[in-house]
Design goal:
five-stranded antiparallel sheet; 498 residues; 12 helices; globular; Immunoglobulin-like
Length: 498
């Protein structure tokens, strides 16, 4: 019945698929990209790991595949529509037009193969070449990618491939096959031509940011213009010139013609205060940084600030006189960014203090939700949901010990009455005779779960949390310093204590 329905309306189904598939791809990629440049607590949270295990690599390959399908399927739409129209005129009629789907499958198979290669390329480049935000660390690499793409634009192989991509009717006449297997081979052949036309442009994702929506949109426009606009092959020369201009701009807008500024700290060199009060700034570094924050802690009751409608925060900055721009962002993970403000550039590199205030109602870190595990051999200490991920228990010789409670925050309640938070309690000495316990603002909280891999896994209903989000138990001050090189980020923490 469904097949007959598709056969009767195959043209409508094809057009709907060509519209719906890119939109579905965008429905995953766009929120993930926005979250990646935000709190990274939603669709992009899986990226927050340095472990290249199979789940991470699989998700990375899926990200590349969905991105390539969403970008490249619209460019092959004219070929698919023309091929379906030709098959529709055959003696088999509309049923023959269904062979356009094997053609589309062959085309997408090529780009899926490219996505797998890109995944392994990203794995091979690793953190030595790419930043955690999936862009190249050195502007020199970005320049090389731009110049390479520009040079490839004017090569004979680019001309051959682009000519084939721009002339779908001519391609069909040269490679026409009427059977499904032949249609698949046609799709693969056209995909190879398309890959030969666009591979150098796709590599620019590494230069502009693999998940940067502006880079993705710009590449989609360039590819579409090259393939369907009426000015012929001259567009590749125009695009080559534009890429060279972009390379020159990168050279003149970065310090040292591509060298990452020596002032940029490695992630483990960031100075952190407040919650990690024992950390101290490196004495042999001279980069803009927060060198102190007050208060170290802020009292909260049931997730809300104690005793005032606002509170003041003072922080000190050093080595910031040579900057072109200085911003401060205030975050609570699980809640989001509370404030972003420009900071006046100081006249010298000495210590300069700044203050700002936050309204107490902005900082609702959620109810205090605590857990422990009771066992015949003893009970563990209590540990909070939303604790700083760096503050975990350390094995101390006790037979039973709770070392970590995850996640460090919950996502906002979506409105579904049965929604729950997945909680894991990991530690040492747990067995089937142990029982997890919970408390919600010092009231008993029912915790039912199962034991697997030395950790208890349980569901806590949002109804049990008063339908409130639980944020990380610290305020994060992120200082973003702009100069002639890449922005430098430096963080400090203020703890929330019950």
């Amino acid at each position: 019945m469904l097949v007959e329905l598709i056969v009767r309306h195959e043209r409508r189904f094809l057009i709907a698929a060509l519209i719906a598939i890119p939109l579905l791809c965008a429905a995953w990629i766009v929120p993930m990209a926005r979250d990646m440049y935000g709190s990274m607590s939603g669709p992009s949270a899986w990226m927050m790991t340095r472990a290249w295990d199979w789940p991470h690599v699989t998700l990375l390959a899926a990200m590349w595949t969905v991105m390539m399908v969403g970008m490249m399927l619209p460019t092959v739409a004219p070929l698919l529509l023309i091929y379906a129209s030709i098959l529709r005129q055959s003696p088999e009629g509309p049923r023959a037009a269904l062979r356009v789907y094997p053609m589309a499958g062959g085309y997408l198979a090529v780009w899926i193969g490219f996505s797998l290669l890109a995944t392994f390329a990203q794995r091979a480049l690793g953190e030595t070449v790419l930043t955690p935000m999936m862009t190249v660390r050195s502007s020199l690499v970005a320049v090389v990618l731009l110049v390479t793409a520009a040079a490839y634009q004017i090569t004979p192989i680019k001309e051959v491939c682009l000519t084939s991509c721009r002339s779908p009717m001519s391609f069909i006449m040269r490679h026409m096959r009427l059977d499904a297997a032949g249609a698949f081979r046609m799709g693969v052949t056209h995909g190879v031509y398309c890959l030969g036309c666009c591979w150098a442009l796709m590599m620019l994702l590494f230069a502009g940011g693999i998940m940067n929506l502006w880079t993705i949109a710009a590449l989609m426009v360039v590819v579409l213009v090259e393939k369907i606009e009426p000015f012929g092959l001259r567009t590749r020369n125009v695009n080559a010139l534009g890429l060279l201009v972009a390379a020159v701009w990168v050279i003149f807008s970065t310090s040292g013609c591509g060298r990452t500024p020596s002032s940029t700290p490695a992630p483990d060199q960031y100075a952190q205060f407040g919650l990690n009060a024992k950390a101290s700034r490196p004495k042999d570094r001279a980069y803009p940084q927060i060198v102190g924050v007050s208060p170290d802690t802020v009292g909260v009751t049931n997730g809300r600030i104690d005793g005032a409608d606002h509170f003041d925060v003072t922080y000190a900055v050093e080595n910031a006189s040579t900057l072109t721009k200085l911003q401060l962002e205030v975050w609570v993970h699980g809640i989001g960014r509370l404030k972003r403000m420009d900071v006046d550039i100081p006249a010298d590199d000495g210590r300069h203090e700044y203050s700002f205030f936050l309204e107490a109602k902005q900082v609702d870190v959620g109810p205090a939700v605590k857990f422990r595990v009771t066992c015949p051999s003893g009970d563990t200490d209590w540990m909070s949901l939303g604790h700083d991920r760096e503050v975990r228990g350390k094995p101390d010789g006790r037979p039973v010990q709770l070392l970590n409670v995850g996640p460090d925050h919950t996502n906002p309640w979506s409105g579904q009455p049965g929604e729950a938070v997945l909680v894991s309690l990991s530690g040492r000495g747990f067995d089937k005779d142990c029982t997890p316990e919970g408390r919600f603002n010092d009231e008993p909280l029912t915790v039912t779960g199962y034991l697997q891999d030395r950790a208890f896994h349980a569901q806590i209903a949002y109804r049990s949390l008063d339908f409130r989000t639980v944020g990380s138990r610290y305020l994060e001050l992120k200082l973003v310093a702009y100069s002639t090189g890449y922005p430098v980020e430096n963080t400090a923490h203020v703890a929330f204590t019950e």
